[in-house]
Amino acid sequence: MLHKKIFEKLNIFFKKNILVVLIFVLSLISISEFVYYYQNGLGLAYNDARSHLDIGRRVVEGLNTGVAQIGSVWLPLDHLLMVPTIWNDFMWHSGLAGAIQSMISYVLTGVIIFLFLKEIKVGVVGRLVGVALFALNPNILYLQSTPMTELLLIATMMAGCYFFLLWYKKEKIVFLLLSAFFIMLSTMVRYDGWFLLFFAAMWLFFSLLKKKNWREAEGKILLFCILGGFGIFLWLLWNQLIFHDPFYFIFGQYSAYAQQKQMELSGILYAKNNWIMAFKVYIYAVAQNVGIFNLFLAIFGAIFFFFSKKIALIDIKYASLLLLAPLLFNVLALYLGHTIIIIPGVSGDTVFNIRYGIMMMPMVAIFVGFIVEYLEYFKLAIVAALLIFNVWSVTRVDAVTLFEPQIGLRQEDSAEIGQGMQKHAQDNQDLILISSYAHDSSIFSSMLPMKRFIHEGSGKYYDAALQEPDHLARWIVMKTDYEADPLWHLLKDNPVLEKYEIVEHYNFADIYEIKDEYKKGLISSSVIK
Amino acid sequence: MEIEQNNLQEEVSSIKNNGLKFFDFFYRKKEPGFMKKPINFYDESAEGSIGNGIHHEGVNFVTHSDLHHKHSAIQTIHTHQKVVVLLLIIIFVVGSLINFGKTLVVLVAALSILYFIDLLFNLFLIVKSFQKSEEVQIAKNDIKKLQDEDLPVYTIFCPLYEEWQVIPQFTKAISELDWPKEKLDVQLLLEENDPKTIEEANKMNLPSYFSIIVVPNGHPKTKPKACNYGLGHAKGEYAVIFDAEDVPDKDQLKKAYLTFQKLKNEKIICAQAKLNFYNARQNVLTRLFSAEYALWFDLVLTGLQSIKAPIPLGGTSNHFRTKDLKMLNGWDPFNVTEDCDLGIRIAKMGYHTAIFNSNTMEEATSRVGNWMRQRSRWIKGYMQTYLVHMRRPNEFMTDLKNPNIITFQLIVGGKVLSLFINPLMWVLTIAYFSFRSVMGPIIEPLFPGPILYIAVFSLVFGNFLYVYYYMIGCAKRGQWDLVKYVFLVPFYWLLMSVASWKALHQLIFKPHYWEKTVHGFHLNMKQNN
Predict the structure, then answer these.
(1) ipTM score here?
(2) I need a surface site. Which of A370, A494, B54, B266 has the fewest CB within 10 A?
(3) Using a CB-CB distance cutoff of 8 angstroms, which residues of chain A are in contact with residue B482?
């Protein structure tokens, strides 16, 4: 009797406070996962993670600080969000300054999946299965513990999709504005967001033309696109103001386009101009990230969702199509050769960018949650199968997102270059000339203050150091005879290099130090002072 | 009478020709018996406030109100306010003499911070207006339940001056109101020196519940004075002001009555209906004017209401219990935005205004010259209101929990100030980007580090958000076709800035001059068509 009462009370408590409980549980998981990866030293396995942190740090500390340091290689939201905490050395070197956004995004996405499922009439069991599938996915758990942009992108895109759904259901302007706002945030994280904005705008416009009239469609699309596109406008403006070219991020020296050109020359754009290959590569990447069984179940769930009469409102189906945006974007990007995903046995013999497949995780979670709810008689069986499969895969295979930085193309051991710099430079105040574009993760690994480095963002110091490095830089870090290293490219023919000698040699860079007889000419210590 | 009305006509014509002096530090009338300081007088022979007024500088101004001169704009600026203004000028001059550059930096910093605060405040208001609808919603069913015999007498004030053309439209609009006609007390408030309107009104076959009330000639000749005169003759338990060109919703009186009944709050003494235009699509100016009204009534005012801030009332369609209006001493005849002043006075006395779900359609001024006259009067009135209520800022502090003093600064003071500063900031921005090589070295030192970030943030996000708010306002009103015209709003702002200089000129030289807005252009257009 007493047990029954306690059970009832608990039941009422959870019903009332289910979102609070969910946030609490997700937060606990998030924090413990971060601590786990931090303690075993895997939290910053990606070189990109360290580069993100360095970009954020340069805004507040360095020879030339300020917002201009966010540069144009990556979109800026991630780095701007770091600014309030990155000044702290622990937050910088632990990666927490960047990971904290991923962690909040993780919790937020879990809540949005729960709410999204509620809006498509899925009961508590289905909702919790959906959230669990997302929240316990090892790849999600790893990426939420690092300063990478995936979780922030997923959260902003999912929030955009969720409010888009609410707008379709309730037609309240505030939901359209919120959808545009979150999509705008996503456009400031990665270019996937740009596609989502385009996709959502098209979808909105044509559905309004069908349902309403031209006047209303025009007004609403303007309202949506002006806010949704504001981030893109700012980015173009930024590039114009800082680099004097609004499209610098596309065609600039360090742009993705320049990188793709290099890859094209290397002949590794396997999916370019090949729809089938593009689709196949991306689906494989998704399967590797979300689990093959989960993916099949989600496809089944999606078919059921779009064709089932159980979802009476056609608008909900329309709005939910937005969840497919990452699939379309990635396949299109692969087809156009704007990106590359390498999966062993499919498109190469190593692992590269396989984490892009994780973008479909929320969609998988939602459609699996849906199928669990609506295949009433098999509900238990499906939940049991999901449990068995996921436990089996977690115990058998590591997170593929963690696998990538350990064995992929990006396995340069920047740490040893960093340690080399630390060994030589930690006991003095002299400056190091280095390309942050090529060796940002080594800068991070050196644990030296950012103001010790002269790099592309150092403005007049960088320009002066390229002209007369022997006045400013005691050390030069670059990869000898490697044209892709910007410093080598710029300094290889400069006779001043004769004043330097290699003091450390590594696979991915050499450390040059100025010879003793030229040290008197250095003014680098006074620059710092 | 306490004071004899000697040579009143001469004084009135003198004031009409020359206006009252503003910087009258050395301005002294030497005639014996001349009272420099204002003093209220009371006509004991008349009923209520009729015949009462303020004596100032030898002139008896019959205002038909007991409003104390301290709460009136009869004196534009008080001595201690002049001292503050002088002190600020002296600080600037002395600062400039000591270090002109640094003084300018301080000035720019203060303005940038002000802009930034205003930006945040407006964002807060807009978010508030979405969070919880504070607008009182009166349902049709509630209206149906009302019995005619239970309804009180309702007085409608309609001040008219040289606009007999719109009387038929007004008569039609009032006769269509859903209120028992035997319980309507409609007062056409005409001016004694406007014989044409009196003649035309008498010729018209007005309904029996209309009465023509001729306001005795005298200075000031303003709408609020006419309304005060009407208030002295009001028979209704409730009262409302409509402009002659207004077309209120048919059920507005019942909704206003029910608003008071529903709220059952003696502290809420004014119910404000929303204003809209019936000629919104006449031309670009009326479209932009409509967008502005949409923003003001559907976002800003509801936001202000939600934080219980002082609400500058709209010129028409504010409903009162007549006893409350009398308790407030009616309107200030010297303030050319008596509505704004009354709204602030209501808040200062600890009362509130409610906004309810009814619209009054007005005529948007469709000609630039006419618009300029109206707008400059509004801005002048805002300046008068600011100066009147800043005579004793401590009066705002009655409730420490309610920061009315801050909201007043932002709603009234900041709004006007920004009109003067906006052009300067735009010129600085355009000059900087157009002639960077020449202007850069001059402008850049004005914006050191943090100030630059605040200023740039306000420039980019402020301008974007203000434009976007207009769009949201249009969207909330379903005026979708107006959304695209909002891109032209910067030109509208420019016009507002021009009007603000005109307003300042008038505040100094003709503070109580009422710039008459000409109505009925839409009627001409209809006839032409």
Answers:
(1) 0.87
(2) B266
(3) 219
